[in-house]
Amino acid sequence: MNWKQIPLGPLQTNCYLLFNEDKQCIVIDPGAQGEDLIQYMEQEGLKPLAICLTHAHYDHIGAVENVRSHWGIPVYIHENEKEWLTDPSLNGSARHPMEPVSGQPADHHLEKEGALEIGPFTMEVLETPGHSPGSVSYYIKEIETVFSGDALFNGGIGRTDLLGGDHATLIDSIHNKLLSLPDQTTVLPGHGFSTSVEKEKTSNPYL
């Protein structure tokens, strides 16, 4: 199993493609440039099985409809943000000088932590709210990797001044869910470069 990081859109939001040796693929946070993303996956021979969202801010969901409709695959999101895909006032796009981002509701709502099985892939869903009320992280023990969305960054943490954000909740999520993972765990954030649990424990100035 391996992964590919692809920064997309004006905010360079990290989309991740998680794939196996058979080229089956999970798409995490397809934020923008849907046609470019589709073209890349087709060139690589990838076969997407699902879209998994860490949260539903506009810069993480902009290409959801392109990818979903192209392959006819389901979308997973936490139940606390199940309305956000369809509502620009919730996902934030209505507050910016851009075309509002909206689409169809998600196909599956994540209601609790635990194992999420999609085809041959098994991920552990961790509820990591604070940046947004339905933020989740996806941990894959097999490759010692966690997709942290906008909860934890390389040397930083997510902003909490947006709808439903809460600083104390975010700090609690980071300490109790992400920094409790093994030190060698690779952290793949929603923006910027990858890091590790050990590095953020010892050097993140916000923690």
UniProtKB/TrEMBL annotation:
Q: Which of UniProt's keywords are assigned here?
A: Hydrolase, Metal-binding, Zinc
Gene Ontology molecular function: hydrolase activity; metal ion binding
Q: Where does the record place the Metallo-beta-lactamase domain?
A: 12-191
* InterPro entries the UniProt entry points to: MBL_Glyoxalase_II, Metallo-B-lactamas, RibonucZ/Hydroxyglut_hydro
Q: Extract the coiled-coil ranges from the record.
A: none
The record's annotation in SUPFAM superfamilies points to: Metallo-hydrolase/oxidoreductase
- The lineage's top-level taxon is Bacteria
Instruction: Give the range the annotation lists for the signal sequence.
Output: none
**What is its cofactor?**
Zn(2+)
> Which PANTHER family does the entry mention?
HYDROXYACYLGLUTATHIONE HYDROLASE GLOC
Q: What is this protein called?
A: MBL fold metallo-hydrolase
